[in-house]
Amino acid sequence: MENLQRALESRGLALASIPGKGRGLVTTRDFIPGDVIIFQEPYASAPNKVYTSSICDGCFTSNNLRKCSVCKVAWYCGNTCQRSEWKLHQLECKALASLRDDRRKLLTSTVRLMVRLILKKQLQNEQLSCNAHTICDDELSPLGTGLYPVISMINHSCVPNSILMFENRMGFVRATEPITKGTEILISYIETAATTATRKKDLKQYFFTCTCARCTKNLHEELEETAILEGFRCRDKQCNGFLILASGIYPAIHPMIGLEFYIRGKLEWLLELTEDSIKSYIKAIEILRITHGTRTPFMKELLNKLEEARAEASHKHSVRD
Ligand SMILES: C[S@@+](CC[C@H](N)C(=O)[O-])C[C@H]1O[C@@H](n2cnc3c(N)ncnc32)[C@H](O)[C@@H]1O
């Protein structure tokens, strides 16, 4: 741990305890956009199964590849990579070679990564805690998975100040904005060009709730963002209205006509709606009211019909029960 702190210090970083997030990396000097904050080879890595035959196990390049003649699973671009990987590969090679063809086809990147991690721990008899990162090429296509112990201490934000990129297997964290001394380094674990609802869904796999500025926007700001990222603008250039996709229907966030445009003429049909979709429509009208500060007569009429439909649906529901 002391070695780690010293190594971090030399790069202008320190490990810190961040309230609500566990550990995190904090700067001890200023960084400017483009600065490489930290770079690291993975502790262990494995190419994606689909790429097993098209990238080198050692450096993740795809030039002049040759298969390991024993296991026929590992590929190398030359002797240098084969030699550098041999210490670890010799431990898995025999086991991989003994797999029947049908079993070998089932071998995933994650399984191979886990095996390699255990073998590496055996080799180094080391305590380690880290999380995996998907290694991508320049076009963000996933090539494999790697465990980067220091980079794995960086927490997430949907408004990150840094970005994690890869050159073959090497992970680089670069500043994307000026970062002053004493600031936490934050990268995004997910696609940031997504609505709050989508980002929340994508973050579920990490078991935490993001409290960044984008995730704590008020309803109006969130809708504006959703409209920009996923909405359909009104064709009328004078109009700022838009339609957004939400759970399979299009609630219309449109100054006057949007909701009418979609729902007028369908009032009878409302009676066929499920309770959940009725609630979505009621919410859509409520949102309209917040966005435009008023309820049009049509919205009032529609709201009454929806409340009736909701009462009817809940009555049907309780009779069925
Ligand atoms: C790659 S690790 C980051 C380092 C971690 N904080 C630690 O102490 O080892 C990812 C984990 O950190 C925590 N984390 C990351 N970003 C967070 C955030 N914005 N808010 C709360 N927890 C966060 C979550 O527990 C997540 O599963």
In terms of topology, how is this protein built?
Elements: H1 2-10, E1 13-18, E2 22-27, E3 36-40, E4 44-47, E5 66-67, E6 75-76, H2 79-97, H3 101-105, H4 109-124, E7 132-136, E8 142-147, E9 155-156, E10 162-167, E11 170-175, E12 186-187, H5 196-203, H6 219-230, E13 232-233, E14 242-243, E15 252-253, H7 257-263, H8 267-270, H9 275-292, H10 297-320
Parallel strand pairs: 9-12
Antiparallel strand pairs: 1-2, 3-11, 4-8, 5-6, 7-8, 10-11, 13-14, 14-15
Helix pairs in contact: 2-4, 9-10
This protein binds S-adenosylmethionine.
S-adenosylmethionine binds at residues 20-24, 131, 152-153, 155-157, 206-208, 210.
Describe the structure.
The chain has helices at residues 2-10, 79-97, 101-105, 109-124, 196-203, 219-230, 257-263, 267-270, 275-292, 297-320, and strands at residues 13-18, 22-27, 36-40, 44-47, 66-67, 75-76, 132-136, 142-147, 155-156, 162-167, 170-175, 186-187, 232-233, 242-243, 252-253. By secondary structure, it is an alpha+beta fold. The chain has three domains: 1-42 and 149-195, Beta-clip-like (Beta Complex); 44-147, no CATH class; 219-320, no CATH class. Strands 3-11-10 form a three-stranded antiparallel beta sheet, with no helix packed on it. A three-stranded antiparallel beta sheet has the order 4-8-7. A three-stranded antiparallel beta sheet has the order 13-14-15. A hairpin with a 2-residue loop joins strand 10 and strand 11 (170-175). It starts with a helix and ends with a helix. The model is unreliable at 126-130, 246-253 and 255-269 (pLDDT under 50). S-adenosylmethionine (SAM) binds next to strand 2 and strand 9. GO terms for molecular function: zinc ion binding.
